[in-house]
Amino acid sequence: FSSFPSPDGKWRAEVVIHECVQVDSREDADAYRVELLKLKRVSDQNETIIESELINCGGVGACGIGGLLWSPNSQFFYYTDAREGVPDGLCGYWARPIKRFSVTSQTVETVGGGHLSPDKTMFAFWEESEIVIWSLNDGEIGRVSATTPNASENEISWSPDSQFIVYLQTDSDCYPFGMSYVTQLDLSEMTQTMLFGTENFSFTWLSWDSADQISLVDDKGDKWIYD
User: How far is CA 10 from CA 104, 108, 174, 192, in A?
Assistant: First the structure.
C-alpha cells in the first residue's frame, strides 16, 4: 500500500493491506481485511512486523494503518492506526493518534493526536489541558497549560516558519460550542498570548495560512480572517 525509506537508507517501513475476505459463504457474512506495518532492513531484506490490524470491512469508526514519516536521524518511524474514518458518534475535535516505533528498542509508544510542523521536525498535540511539543528526534521538548483550562480542546495550527502555533478552545466540545478562545504560543520562549476571545461567534476550525493571517470557520460554516 505504501513504502517509506529511512533518511539513512538502511531501513524501509511498509504498509501492507490484504484484501477483504468473508468469514464464511453466507451472503450477509462479515468480511475482514488484515493490515500490517513492517520494517525491512535494506541490506538483507530481513523484516519485522511492527503492528497488525484485523478490520471489519463493513464497520464504522476510525481504522487502518497509515505510515507518516521517519525522524531525521532514522531512529524512529511515525504512523497512525486510524488512517481513515472518524470515531463513531464524534461531534467535536479529534486528531488522528500517532505512534512511534523505535528501531533501536523495537518498541512502540503512543505519542498523541499530533499536528506536524511545516519543517517536518515537530508535532504539537493536546494531552488533557496541556499543549505538548514533540521533536521527531528527541521526543517531548516542552509543554504548557492551556490559557483557558476549563474550556474544551480544539484545533491546533503551526505558523509557516514552524516557530509558533495557535490553538483554539471552546466552552463546549459539541454544538452549541459557546465562547471561543484563540491563543498563540511562541516556541522560542514557551510563552503564550491570547489573541482574542469571543462569544459573538463560535469557531470550530482554524489554520495559519500566511505569516500574518489566520483563517477561521464558525459553526455556521462562514470563513473569517484574523490579521
Answer: 13, 19, 46, 41
Cα separation, 72 vs 138, in Å, equals 10
Quick one: cell of 45? 531484506
177/183 Cα distance (integer angstroms)? 17
54 Cβ neighbours under 8 A, 6+ residues apart: 32, 33, 34
Its pTM stands at: 0.90
Each residue's pLDDT expressed in tens, for the chain with a length of 227 residues:
999 999 999 999 999 999 999 877 777 778 999 999 999 999 999 999 999 999 999 888 999 999 999 999 999 999 999 999 999 888 889 999 999 999 999 999 999 998 999 999 999 999 989 999 999 999 999 999 999 989 999 999 999 999 999 999 999 988 888 999 999 999 999 999 999 999 998 999 999 999 999 999 999 999 999 99
